[in-house]
User: Fold these one by one.
Assistant:
Number 1:
Amino acid sequence: EAGVTQFPSHSVIEKGQTVTLRCDPISGHDNLYWYRRVMGKEIKFLLHFVKESKQDESGMPNNRFLAERTGGTYSTLKVQPAELEDSGVYFCASSQVSVPQYFGPGTRLTVL
Amino acid sequence: QKEVEQNSGPLSVPEGAIASLNCTYSDRGSQSFFWYRQYSGKSPELIMSIYSNGDKEDGRFTAQLNKASQYVSLLIRDSQPSDSATYLCAVNVNAGGTSYGKLTFGQGTILTVHP
C-alpha cells in the first residue's frame, strides 16, 4: 500500500511569490491533515479535512494560506504571497479515523 | 508552559542499553498518545500509540502512560545504532469534537546509540 506522498520535496521561492504544495493521502483515508515545522520549533498543526470539508483550520497562520481538497482526494496548500517566516517543512498526514495519523515525507519550503 | 514537553537531548546510550524517553503534557483532556521516530530528512514514522494508563509493549519498544501525572514515556530495549533518530511525542485532545484529530507535538528528543 502506498503511503502519503507530497510534491514537491523541496521548493525555493522569493518573497512575494506563490507556491502550491500537494499532498496525496493513503487511499481510503478520509482524514487529511497539514502540519508545519519551522526551524528550531515543534511540528504544529495547520488544518484538518474530513473528505472535502474543513473540519478544523484553527492552526492556519493567516489568510495568505489557502488549503483545498477537491473531491476528497488529494489536497493542495497554497501560500500567496510567501513571506520569509513561511520557510519550513510542511507535512501532510492522513488517517482512516482521527488517529493514528501517517505522515508524508514533507515539502521543504525556503523563502528567500 | 508548552503543551507537550520533551527533553531535546541529545540522549546518548551505548548499544544494547535501554533508552528512556520522556514526555509531559499539560491538557488533562488528552486522550491519545503517540511516539513517532524521525530520521533526518524523512517523514515521522509512527512506532507506538497508547490510549490507557499502563504499559504497552511492541517488540523492543514499551510505551508507558500515567494520566494522573500527565506523562508518557518510551523505553527502547537493546538499543541499536539504527535507533539513532529524533523521537517525537504527540498528543491528541478529543474534547467534544472541537480538537478532533489535531496532534500536538513536543520538540523531539535526539537519541544517539553508539557502538
Note: Chain B has no helices and eleven strands.
Number 2:
Amino acid sequence: DQQVKQNSPSLSVQEGRISILNCDYTNSMFDYFLWYKKYPAEGPTFLISISSIKDKNEDGRFTVFLNKSAKHLSLHIVPSQPGDSAVYFCAASETSYDKVIFGPGTSLSVIP
Amino acid sequence: GAGVSQTPSNKVTEKGKYVELRCDPISGHTALYWYRQSLGQGPEFLIYFQGTGAADDSGLPNDRFFAVRPEGSVSTLKIQRTERGDSAVYLCASRVSGGLGELFFGEGSRLTVL
C-alpha cells in the first residue's frame, strides 16, 4: 500500500510560469515532509522540508504548502527555469529521525 | 570525502551470485539509510541504522538481503543468491542525528543481474 502518492507522473510548464507539484499521503502519523529533486544518473538532492506545525515554508523560488486535514502537500516553483527539469519526489516520515518514505515521483519539464 | 560515497557505481552479476555494495557516509552522520530504486519508481526504503545497530529493517524484501555497519560509519549491503528482480539502483543516504532531518544521498550503485 503506497503511503505517499504523487498522482501526476509528468508535468510540462513554460519557462517563467509557476510549477505546482502535488503529493498526497495516507498515514496520519506523518509529521515531517521533504521534497527531493533528481537528475538522471545522480542521487536525489534535498530541496525543502516542512514539519506539521507549519502550513507553509519558503526558500527562494520554492515554497511548500501543507494541508494536514486533507493529507496533502504541494511544491510551488516560481518562476520555473529550464534547469528545474528533473524528477521531483515527495517524502514523509513520522518523526524527523524515522524512516523516510518516498512517493513515485513527478517528472517536470520546463520548456524554454 | 565531502559527500556520501557508494561503490561500485555499476555491478553486473549472474543470477545466483553474491553481491556486496558499500556505502561511506558523510563524516559525523550517525544515521545511514539504504533504498532501492527501480526504473520509473521512487526510492523504496530497505533499512536504516542509528550508529551500529539497525533501527528499522522492515523494508528488506527477504532473507537474501542483509546489511551491516560494524563501526558506525561504513555500511555494506549484502545480497545472496541474486535474482533478476534484484536489478535496480541501490541508494545510500546519511543524515545527522538531531539535525533537520535532511537525507544526503550518494549517486547509487546500479546492480544488473543477468
Note: Chain B has a mean pLDDT of 93.
